[in-house]
Amino acid sequence: MVNINTHILYYINQKEPLQKNKIVCITGKNYDGTFKRLFESLYAINKDFDFAWICNYSESSLPYVRFVPWPSNVAIKEMATAHIIIGNDYSPIGFVKQPGQIYINAWHEVLPLKKVGLDAQTDQAGKDRIASTFSDIDLMTSNSRFCTALLRRAFDYHKEILECGCPGNDLLLADQAKSKEHLHSFFHIPSDKKLVLYAPESQKDITSDAVIQNHVKILQAFGEKHVLAFRPSPQQINTSKGIPYSECLIDVSTYPDMQELMSAADVLITDHASIMFDFAFTGRPVFLFAKDMEEFCKQHDCYFDIGNLPFPAFSRLKEFLAGITDFDETKYRKTVKTFFANKIGIFESAHTSQALAKIIAQIASENTKSVKEAVDNVQINDAMMDAIYQYINANFKTAIDDYKEYVKQGCFEMPV
Fold it and tell me: Which stretches within 135-282 are classed as H helix?
């Protein structure tokens, strides 16, 4: 579908009135478990909402959500007639925001490693796309002072930000037991086995991947009660089909919900994918391993030097195996806490989906005059503050005083 036709379809559908109870989520070709939790929270508030999810996947556990493939004329009509649109990336090319629509964005990469947006060397086409997307957005979510500053600077975004975490990380901060039981049952993993999730972002041919080639040695380093679950990058899917999977090397490439995989995993191995930061919220070990680590650092402009991250990083197999064997979990946890407290200014709440759902419900019911008023109405109460302080005390103790001051300044919102 050419862009001019897309514009025309939006304008044609603009003649139809907005459906005030319609909430449409856009993730395009990819499924994102972030919005599964958000839909669940919204449905718990009001079962009369009309939900549509523009995504090339159908989730059977959400029978009240209408899944619409992308790209399609039906998807454009859904977006053009929705009162509230929710996304996690740039707007679809050709998108035209209608008068009266509210556009919310829970950006998919709240703690990126590589520089993004205007922080990166962006050409004019990139700058134009940033301007067209972020000028339309009415509300974004943030999980840290680092993220808030990034949204303001890298995307030139100056409207409302809900600072209580990332919806996708709610599950990672919850009890691991439920996800672990579900994933072990789904993939027929013995209950006494621990799950090592390998999820690289590399676009290289998986047939030469050092982790897959040496997975037996790696599992021996972790211990006999471990299995390796491989989640290839989208670019590796085709070449991963010839991998000789077994009881100790499991294919999780088609499992749609990455948050559930991370929630169930006991260890994460990745190369330079930003999921390293998300998984670290669980407090469980993250290992970085890639033969091209030095090359990657030279080729990409990053927010952090990989060598200064709190995760052990390796480019040689022998060193990686030794790093697993000699891993000091106590030291690791302390380093992670210091990093998130001092460099990131984290304030994950584990309740972002609930907070965002309450805001959306207020806007949809037209009980508020503006997005800002809806955000302001989601107040902090003592019980929630006690819960979040306990979380920070357990995970990022050195940040408590700064965090309390940040709350007093009115920079943090939590649901009642």
Answer: 145-154, 176-186, 210-213, 215-222, 258-264, 275-280
Residue 407 has pLDDT above 90, yes or no: no
What pTM was computed for the model? 0.89
pLDDT of residue 311: 98
**Strand locations in 56-200 (E):** 65-68, 82-87, 102-105, 139-142, 160-163, 194-198
The DSSP code sequence of 176-195 is HHHHHHHHHHHTT--TTPEE
CB 368 within 8 A of CB 358: no
Matching residue, tokens 């060193």: 319
**Spatial distance between the Cα atoms of 82 and 85, rounded to a whole number of angstroms:** 6
Give dist(CA 76, CA 54) in Å, integer: 9
Residue pair 132/154 in contact (Cβ under 8 Å)? The answer is no
d(CA 272, CA 339): 17
Distance of CA 106 to CAs 59, 140, 161, 353, 391, Å?
20, 6, 10, 10, 22
Give residue 41's pLDDT. Answer: 94
Q: Which residues contact 330 (CB under 8 A, 6 or more apart)?
A: none
Q: Tell me the torsion sign for CA atoms 314, 318, 324, 327.
A: negative
How confident is the model over 329-352, as pLDDT tens digits? 999 999 999 999 999 999 888 889
Which 3 state secondary structure label does DSSP give 403? Answer: helix
224-263: pLDDT as tens digits: 899 999 999 877 877 777 898 999 999 999 898 999 999 9
| Phi–psi pair at 8, nearest 5 degrees | -60, -45
In this structure, the strands spanning 82-87 and 286-289 are: unpaired
Beta strands in 260-368 (DSSP E): 267-270, 286-289, 313-314
Taking a C-beta distance cutoff of 8 angstroms, is the pair 392, 164 a contact? no
Following CA atoms 44, 48, 52, 58 in sequence, which dihedral angle do they give, to the nearest 10 degrees?
A: 60
**Separation CA 243–CA 394 (nearest Å):** 41
**pLDDT tens digits for range 153-176:** 999 999 999 988 999 899 999 889
Using the structure block, give the residue that is written with the tokens 């669940």: 40
